[in-house]
Amino acid sequence: MKLTLRVWRQRNADTPGAMSTYDVDGISADMSFLEMLDTLNEALILRGEDPVAFDHDCREGICGACSLVINGDAHGPERTTTCQLHMRSFRDGDTIDIEPWRAAAFPVVKDLVVDRSAFDRVIRSGGYISAPTGSAPEAHATPVPKADADSAFEHAECIGCGACVAACPNGSAMLFTSAKINHLNVLPQGSPERETRVLDMVAQMDAEGFGGCTLTGECATACPKGIPLPSIAAMNREWLRARRKVKG
Fold first, then answer.
1. Does residue 114 sit in helix, strand or coil?
2. For a pLDDT cut of 90, what percent of the chain falls above it?
3. Average confidence score pLDDT of the chain
4. 163 with 222: CB under 8 angstroms?
5. N or C: which end of the chain has fewer CB within 10 A?
6. pTM of the prediction?
């Protein structure tokens, strides 16, 4: 396959960026999208040019590091992570636009790499339990209703990639934050911090400069792990419950 790539190049957050055009040839349909970028960077290095900076780590669809907007879609045309997107999703001769996540809370570090440490601060504000756990407990020591266990597992699948923020027209982090809150709040182990968790994490989310949620649903559509949109409604109910309890 021969492709034309229009790639966002930006030295840092304080320097204006622009799209640069590159041609790549000899791309196999079985390559992953990141392997295709590796091929581009090998050619750039051989020409003495600066390679394109992009985030990646496990390349197994687990870590959420591969954050790219491809032809206007977070992670590209398939509902998966960028590292699991294969070039068979494109055709010979295609022009592909590649950009970083676009959100005020995710400043550009370089080229396609953005700083997502805002997510870390949201989790640090309440995404934990204070009960000492010690060694691994017996699996059935704490009875958990199946519906609650299923909900916890569903929300725990969030990998913090930020696709929900990138896809949202408001740059909202409500889907991510709701996944982290609901994961713990439905379990007995999360009960001691149930109220403070939701209040503190939502407050930190707002402090980071993420936009407000208008329930357009783009976040759930882009999520590679299928975190459902009703997760946000569940978090809002938790928040209202916590506010009433705190106010007495």
1. strand
2. 89
3. 94
4. yes
5. C
6. 0.93
